[in-house]
Amino acid sequence: MANPLRPSSLLESVDQALSIKYNNLVYDLKSTGHDIITLSLGESFFDVPAPDFDGIEPDELHHYSHSRGLPELRRQLAKYYGNQFGLSVDPDHEILITAGSKVAIYLALLATVEPGDEVLVLEPFWLSYPTQVRLCGGVPVSVPHDVSVFGLGAYITGRTRAIIVNNPNNPSGHVYTAAELDHLHELADEHGLLLMVDEAYNEFVAPGTGFITCGAADPELRHTVTLNSMSKNYGISGWRVGYVIAHRTLIDQILKVNQHLITCAPTPLMRYLADHFDTLIEHTRPQIQQVVARRNEVADWLAERGIEVLPGESTFYLFASLGRSKLGSDAFADRLLRESGVCVVPGIAYGESCDHHIRVSVGTESPERIRRGLDAIARLIESTG
Ligand code: PMP
């Protein structure tokens, strides 16, 4: 007799998110009294004012709302992209807010990918992209980290449907240049591809770095899908508010899936964000600048210990090489955690070509504890070389 608990074949091909596996290990170790230096969390802890929902009407406090997202928040987001980045967005038709950008990316893929379609994911990629492509029946095509944007043409076939780009990049901190973005637009035009650009860390750039939104060079949104989130820029990842900006024909498709899977993002949170949009970002911006500066300082501390990182200058992540160590990244991260109480994410989570790297996140620990963590990393590289 068939086992009623058998998983679907689709899900059998899906692994746990490796970063979350390590975070769960941290929770387990901490609960048994271990002190863990946590350089693995995908978050930066900010001082964010506690929300006050007192003035919110009962309708919006407890109930569903528009499944494109609360109109006032859509208008705020459209204004933000227009004023800050020169991308004019129609809040009625070209934007949809949903329960986090993780879901937004999945909905955009579900709305566009046919079974067997190929989607290019650029290593080091944010680890959910390939899995989400698979969950849509698509085929993720990994591009190794040493291939530049200008070498992507070699990976495009007649089945390629889209390229997913993370700008700024988690985990390297790379911010795409105008020339790189122009080349991506050329590829999209030449081959009829979508550019899915995840801009979740767009505020995490050092002054003068000049973040460019990919859609700015595609004002009619002919092929650019922009994904973004309130999680990182506002320091409120637990609120689950993310959004997608795209051509209205795509948004109409995404809307259908959103209605069937999510209904709407949390209504009272969207109301609060719409009412406090500017004051909240003004509150986090100086803190964002501090953590970006810390990140770049940690790059120097790593260099002092002879540890190289992939080029990048933004976010709160560094993608550090394991240098002489003979360990694979999962074994390295496992030993580092068990022997020294320091948690990082193994590079293999970000693609096959990244198995000789680890991701170091500096958003949640003090400088003194970060230095101790780096010392432990340097020691383990040395002793396993
Ligand atoms: N994109 C990137 C690059 C991320 O790092 C994350 C979260 N770690 C997300 C998207 C998802 O963010 P959220 O679902 O909280 O909006």
Automatic annotation (TrEMBL):
Annotated EC: 2.6.1.-
GO BP terms: amino acid metabolic process
Family: Belongs to the class-I pyridoxal-phosphate-dependent aminotransferase family.
Entries under SUPFAM superfamilies matching the protein: PLP-dependent transferases
Domain Aminotransferase class I/classII large: 59-377
Protein's name according to its UniProt entry: Aminotransferase
Organism of origin: Amycolatopsis xylanica
InterPro entries: Aminotransferase_I/II_large, AspAT/PAT-like, NHTrfase_class1_PyrdxlP-BS, PyrdxlP-dep_Trfase, PyrdxlP-dep_Trfase_major
Top enzyme category: transferase
